[in-house]
Amino acid sequence: MLPFSPPRLDQKTVDAVTEVLLSGWITTGPKTKEFEKKLTEYVGCKKTICLNSATAGLELIARWFGLKEGDEVIVPAYTYCASANIVLHCGAKPVLVDIDEKDFNVSIGNIREAITERTKIIIPVDIAGWPCDYNEINEMVNDEEVKKIFKPETPEQKMLGRILVMSDAAHSIGAWYEGERTGSLTDVTVFSFHAVKNLTTAEGGAVCLNLPEPFDCEEIYKTLNMKSLHGQSKDALAKTQIGNWRYDVLEPGFKCNMMDIQAAIGLVELERYQETLDRRAEIFDFYTAAFVDKAWAILPDYHNAQKESSYHLYLIRIKGASEAKRDEIIQNIFEKGVSVNVHFQPLPMLTAYKERGYKVEDCPESMTKYSNVITLPVYYNLTDQDLKMVTDAVIRSVEEVL
Ligand SMILES: *Cc1c(COP(=O)(O)O)cnc(C)c1O
279 and 244, same structural domain? Predict the structure, then answer.
């Protein structure tokens, strides 16, 4: 069976991890700091903090911004549950909005309609690695009319004076938007290094800070470090310095720091990431060439004058397929030895959200896309022969079932 998305790990990764394991320091330390520095340079933001997941990063920022009960956060209905779960963790309300007709990303018009005086954060999600319309989103939150609606309550909210844009870029590290990389496009960007993502640390994530003046991203970095380590005034490494054992706990913080073992994997991944992206782009091109003349195939955008994807997920849609037919096609593809997937079930389909009163009828575009989408395997180690196997399996399965 051709797997769906195994990580790109090899002797180089093993050597890097072994070095850390034998170094005498395995948790947050020099490797994590180096990875943070390299990520900052790579994406072009002001400062980066690495954590043990993207989820932790999203929640840490939401809490840093003072998100609480009674507040609202605008989240696309078409995303992984993490984007909205963290809002619920904070006691606030995710306001789920539908996606746009043109792609799988949140609709700008729908965001605007959903803004109320309770809105504190917008979380755009770069589905499949395709950047959202960030100019439009940034212009919207800076629009005088929209700023007038905003009701700041905490010092951070007062300093910003508008809705915070926190990009869920779990899929999009390395993607481009008007000559800039994701990570540098909004106030805050959160990447995931989970095992199935383009760039992995097994589990892990990073928060890229790009808050405008007068925010001091260096200071915020220190605050986030503190918050990610039980509110300790010193981290474990600092405490090992001679005579430096005493520390304070400033608040009951979280425990979500990244280990140097993880950072070592990430450093290897980042160093050869362009090569990874190039191969992923070739795979996208291969799929598009194979399906472009099929009347039943609706193919994704991944490169135009304004944007370039990080080639995370290849989302092909089968024109005219119902959800049941799509499921049958998927079954058929698996029987031909190829693993495929579906990204994503819109959140109102899931029990936790259904129970909270969210309705699939409120996100028709998400439901339309979800019901006939299939995610094809994309990863560095796929050979051209594997790709041929995938495209043959998809074409035969669709033609057998439809
Ligand atoms: C994977 C993913 C996350 C969560 O990432 P973790 O690092 O596993 O916390 C968040 N949002 C989206 C869209 C994802 O796909």
Answer: no
Q: Which residue range(s) make up the domain with 344?
A: 273-401
Tokens standing for residue 251: 């608040």
Show which of 215, 238, 271 is a domain's final residue. Answer: 271
Same domain (yes/no): 18, 121:
yes
Strand-pairing partners, residue 297, are: 318
Q: How many domains does the chain divide into?
A: 2
The Å distance, Cα 192 to ligand 1 centre, comes to 6
Alpha helices in 272-381 (DSSP H): 273-291, 323-335, 351-354, 364-371
Average pLDDT, the chain: 97
CATH number, domain with residue 316: 3.90.1150.10
Radius of gyration in angstroms for the set of CA atoms belonging to the chain, rounded to a whole number: 22
Where b means 16+ CB within 10 Å and e means fewer, 355-372 reads eeebebeebebbbebbbb
Give me the pLDDT at residue 246, please. 92
Cα distance between residue 96 and residue 58, in whole Å:
16
Burial class (CB in 10 A: 0-12, 13-18, 19+), 15: exposed
Extract the tokens encoding 103: 């792609």
201 CB within 6 A, ligand 1: no
Q: What is the pLDDT of residue 401?
A: 97
Distance 85 CA to ligand 1 centre (A): 11
What's the gap in Å between 178 CA and the centre of ligand 1? 24
pLDDT in tens, 238-281: 888 888 889 999 999 999 999 999 999 999 999 999 999 999 99
If asked whether residues 167 and 35 sit together in one domain, one would say yes
pLDDT of residue 20: 98
Only one residue has tokens 């809705």, namely 163
Residues 335 and 241 in one domain: no
**Hunting for tokens 């259904």 — which residue is that?**
354
* pLDDT for res 236: 83
User: Does residue 82 line the site of ligand 1, with CB under 6 A?
Assistant: yes
